Amino acid sequence: GESVESLTDFCVSASDPAVKETNDLPLALCHGDCDTSLDCQPGLVCFQRRSPFEPVPGCSGGENDGSQTDYCVKDVHAQSPTGTPTVSPSKRPTPVPITDAPVQPTATTNGPSSTPNGVQPTEPPTNTYPPDLPCVSESL
After folding, report:
1. Contact 16, 58 (CB under 8 A)
2. Alpha carbons 54 and 47: distance in angstroms, whole number
3. How far apart are CA 46 and CA 32, in angstroms?
4. Is the separation of the CB atoms in 49 and 35 below 8 Å?
5. Edge-to-edge, what's the strand order for the sheet holding 20-21?
6. d(CA 66, CA 53)
7. Is pTM, for the whole model, over 0.70?
8. Tens digits of per-residue pLDDT, 107-140?
9. Torsion-angle region of residue 100: left (phi > 0), alpha (psi -120 to 50) or beta?
10. Where is pLDDT greater, at 37 or 77?
């Protein structure tokens, strides 16, 4: 079946939902036991645990679960749409677009804009995770 395999670190928060074993298909976030991602609600994938007590990304309690129950988690590989594509490759990550901010036209002059498409550069996002979040390093 489908599985999520990762060689990345992930962070968990006390506010993450607890893992729960249930037979209510399609399974919700942090619910198991799934066999494939088709057992999960849309936007979730089946995280195949390889051993008991393995942490479950985005869920709390997996490290205390001695079973090998597989759980539905957020699809970390799903991409959110970004803004208008750039003309050339970016030198740094594109910040997440703000969809609720009003869009204001760029002031124009008689000459061409100094930036592509008149888009002004923005500062990169800072500290994407709160500093008090414990991180778990797993090699799956």
Report:
1. yes
2. 11
3. 8
4. no
5. 20-21, 31-32, 71-74, 44-47
6. 5
7. no
8. 555 555 455 555 555 555 444 444 455 555 444 4
9. alpha
10. 37
Tell me the two tokens of residue 89.
Answer: 């490759």
Q: Which residues contact 139 (CB under 8 A, 6 or more apart)?
A: 7
- Whose tokens are 């393995």? That residue is 54
The three-state secondary structure class of 64 is: helix
d(CA 101, CA 76) in angstroms, rounded, equals 26
Q: Hey, which residues does 18 pair with through a beta bridge?
A: 60
Fill in the amino acid letter for 76: V
Q: Do residues 12 and 60 lie in contact, with contact meaning Cβ atoms separated by under 8 Å?
A: yes
Question: Peptide bond before 33: cis, by omega within 30 degrees of 0?
Answer: yes
